[in-house]
Write a structure and sequence with these properties.
Strand content: 15-25%
Protein name: Copia protein
Pfam families: RVT_2 (PF07727)
Number of strands: 15
Largest sheet: 6 strands, antiparallel
Structural class: alpha+beta
Helix content: 25-40%
Number of helices: 8
Organism: Cacopsylla melanoneura
Distance between the termini: 60 Å
Shape: globular
InterPro entries: DNA/RNA_pol_sf, RVT_2
Order of helices and strands: HHHEEEEHEEEHEEEEHEEEEHH
Radius of gyration: 25 Å
Length: 325
């Protein structure tokens, strides 16, 4: 009998876990950062539980659930009729120290906000990299104090105005029950804006004003002190000329939000090394670059200069005439 072998081409389908991510448009890959890829964090809960460090992931999951309970993120209610109910997903990440060792295991329960259309405004500003560099220059020149703080589960501080329902997390699913969200859980499109609005209200109450050049830079001048506060989502960098005033503001932040004080300045992967005695500051990405090299087995590779040949000298006449090959 005649057998139709087709044209020899296989129909390629995306991996099953792609369903958990939003896509820019059809046939585009999901949004990933290279840093996440390098760290080799588990993608699914099943993968996390199958690893040798599963106990640490279990502890991270419980910590996340405790945070939702503390903030009253949702109420469990009967499944509503004729209402869209979105799904949720666990996201895992290993936060590393400067030497590459694991510092913290983080698990985050996120809503699949791309399944929902219940939102109005979603825009939320982020600090400019130029602003960060200028602030570091000011701090180094005038010998200002610098402190970096992290807001734990920052988005849960934002109040949700829309009525949104979400299925219960994995291992808790019930076809008759859902979560009615009351806080801006991670994954919702409006969550960054709601958190930014919440932080703005607090900063205005504390007497800060937004910079005209960067709305994520807050400035407060008083008779004896000046404070600069830079916000990038949940990372906060504070610098000022008065250690007492800076400490008092730190305490205000801690009383308003659950905060963590970081030992080193690490801003979006940029590591700041400072020597106050010699008035020197260095900003680099050595840790991230080393992670990339290790991931692709290039940590012991030899650097070469290409495409110019070693020893090639160019004079002005050659540059004006051009070089032919």
């Amino acid at each position: 009998p005649n057998v139709d072998h087709g044209n020899g081409k296989r129909t390629r389908k995306p991996p099953a876990w792609h369903k958990d991510y939003d896509f820019a448009e059809e046939n585009h890959g999901a949004y990933f950062s290279c840093a996440d890829y390098v760290e080799q964090s588990p993608i699914t809960k099943e993968e996390a539980m199958a690893r040798t460090d599963s106990e640490k992931w279990k502890a991270a999951i419980q910590e996340e659930l405790d945070s939702h309970k503390k903030y009253n993120t949702w109420n469990v209610v009967p499944r509503p009729e004729k209402r869209k109910v979105i799904d949720s997903k666990w996201v895992f990440k290993v936060k590393t120290n400067m030497d590459g060792t694991a510092e913290r295991y983080k698990a985050r329960l996120v809503a699949k906000g791309f399944q929902s259309s219940d939102y109005k405004e979603t825009y939320s500003p982020v600090a400019k990299l130029t602003t960060f560099r200028v602030l570091m220059s000011i701090a180094n020149h005038y010998d200002y104090e610098i402190v970096q703080m992290d807001v734990k589960t920052a988005f849960l501080n934002g109040t949700l105005e829309e009525e949104i329902y979400m299925n219960l997390p994995e291992d808790m699913y019930d076809s008759n029950l859902v979560c009615k969200l009351g806080k801006s859980i991670y994954g919702l499109k409006q969550s960054p804006k709601n958190w930014n609005t919440r932080f703005n209200v607090f900063m205005e109450k504390e007497g800060f004003q937004n910079s005209k050049h960067d709305t994520c830079l807050y400035i407060r001048n008083s008779e004896n002190s000046v404070l600069y506060v830079l916000l990038y989502v949940d990372d906060i960098i504070i610098l000022g000329n008065n250690k007492t005033s800076l400490g008092q503001f730190q305490n205000k932040l801690k009383s308003e939000f659950e905060m963590t004080v970081l030992d080193n300045i690490n801003y979006l992967g940029l590591i700041v090394e400072r020597n106050r005695e010699s008035c020197e500051m260095k900003i680099h990405q050595t840790k991230y670059l080393q992670e990339v090299m290790n991931k692709f087995n290039m940590s012991n590779c030899k650097g070469i200069s290409t495409p110019i040949d070693k020893g090639l000298n160019l004079d002005r006449a050659q540059s004006e005439e051009g070089i032919t090959t």
